[in-house]
Each structure stands twice: as C-alpha cells, then as structure tokens.
Amino acid sequence: MTTIKTAQTNDERHPLHGYQPAPSRFKSRKNFFKSTTEITPSFEHERHRKWIASNQTNNFKIKPVEKLPPRYRCEWNTWKALNRLRVGVARTKKNLCKWGYNTETVDYECGSEQTEQHILVCPLNSVSCTPEDLAKATDAAIQVANQWSRKEI
To answer: Where in this protein does the record put region Disordered (predicted)?
Structure first.
C-alpha cells in the first residue's frame, strides 16, 4: 500500500499525482493518502533487515530453486511431514504449546523435549537423520517423516 502512495506522490505519470484529498466529513473516516506513510530508502532497508532477521530462524537453510524438490512423489502424509520438519513448523508438542493449542507438558515419551531437532534423532525412532538429509530428502529422512506422519506431526 505504501508503494501506491509513493508512486502517487513522486511519479508525474500517475493519474493521482498532485491530487489533494477533500477534507473528511467524519472523524472516524481515514483517507488512504493521509493514513499511509511514504516509502523511503531507510524504510525499505529496515523492512528488508527485519525480513532477513525473521528468516534466520529456519535452521535447515533450504535454498529456494525453480524445480521440483527431491522425492516429490511421496505419499501426501509423508510429504507433508517432511516439509513441516524442513521448515520448522512440525506439529510438535513444543510448537503446539507455543501456538496455544496444547497446554500440556512439552516432554515426549522418551523424556526429552519434543522439538523438530529432537524428532530427527529421537531414540524411539528406528532411524535418525540430519537437517541436511531433510533438505536432500534421503531415505533416512523419508523414513523419519513417514514414522512421524503416522503420529500426525
């Protein structure tokens, strides 16, 4: 929205360039032109910095590419669990508690805290994997995702 105001203010080709909005008849009504802020280079830089900082939480560092990911023909539940584990939003007890869906303890059956990292190496699993395995969708990662898909993670 703020890019529209910036274009309207700075670009002479914009149909509303130089337009002065009429005064509002009601105090509760906010004019778009008056209620938004103009984008400045420092504003864009700050927004980009915040976006980068928010994306630093992804521990697996999967780079986006324009081709189908490995093992894209898995069963839907396995594929869903694999992708949730990849990006760190699996339905673990810790995440459910953080999201407000689960008020119970975050400990798992093995006694450790149930997080995405713990799921990969849990001693109750028949196989373990690493974040790199998840990114490459190796056989070990598929087996872990398949096990956890049955537990609806």
So the answer is: 1-21
Question: With contact defined as beta carbons under 8 Å apart, do 86 and 62 qualify?
Answer: yes
Structure token pair of residue 58: 């992804």
DSSP states of 35-58: HS----HHHHHHHHHHHHHHHTT-
CB atoms within 10 A of CB 137: 21
Domain boundaries, the chain: 2-55, 76-150
pLDDT in tens, 99-128: 888 667 767 777 778 888 888 888 888 888
Burial 16-44 (b: 16+ CB within 10 A, else e): eeeeeeeeeeeeeeeeeeeebeebeeeee
